[in-house]
Specification:
Layout: E1 2-23, E2 29-47, E3 49-50, E4 56-64, E5 68-75, E6 80-86, E7 90-99
Antiparallel strand pairs: 1-2, 1-7, 3-4, 4-5, 5-6
Length: 102
């Protein structure tokens, strides 16, 4: 049976550089860069067909490694893309839909 869709809730962390200010005793301020980490949860969905990168996904696969889960997309042009997720960043369950006709 061929996989037609893979979905799960994933935890993402993004580091951003924001400008902050140090206020001096005379009331003036000096700007300095400050690194801020933002975390959010978002559903990750992988399906067959035309993807956001413009390539057509012909086949999906999942590899379970010791610390990672890797989603593999095979494209109609003979290329593939791997999307590794650390197991700790996959929240809840992985939902895998399969077609009995393919």
């Amino acid at each position: 049976m061929a996989i037609t869709k893979i979905s799960f809730l994933a935890h993402y962390c993004v580091r951003e550089i924001q400008e902050d200010y140090i206020v001096l005793t005379d009331g003036s301020s000096i700007p300095f860069p400050k690194e801020v980490t933002k975390a959010y949860d978002k559903e990750a969905v992988f399906v067959l067909g035309l993807g956001p990168c413009g390539k057509t996904v012909d086949k999906l696969d999942v590899m379970y490694l010791e610390h990672d889960i890797v989603i593999v997309q095979y494209h109609s042009d003979g290329t593939l893309k791997e999307f590794p997720y650390q197991r700790k960043d996959v929240l809840g369950r992985l939902t895998i839909e399969k077609s009995i006709y393919q």
